[in-house]
Design goal:
Layout lengths: L1 E4 L6 H16 L8 E6 L3 E6 L7 H8 L4 H18 L1
Antiparallel strand pairs: 1-3, 2-3
Length: 88
Amino acid sequence: MKIIKKNLLKSENIKIQTISERLILESLDHPFLVKLHYAFHNMAKIYMMVDYMEGGELFYLIRARGKFTEDEARFYAAEIFLALEYLH
């Protein structure tokens, strides 16, 4: 579950980005991209129910590990390429 605090959405640009993120995520259907299944909100927060991704985001993995082996880098690069091809 992705949780966004509404008080962090102060500027109009950030609000538009959040709405765009929701619309894009719910329209995706690709094995290498997170799928949004449900979204709701209350007075303080926005909740987005997305696919469970064991291990977390790739950015977190890069920060935690420092660098990948050549085979791992090739694997993640191929997944990113296929996801970007789908989005295009």
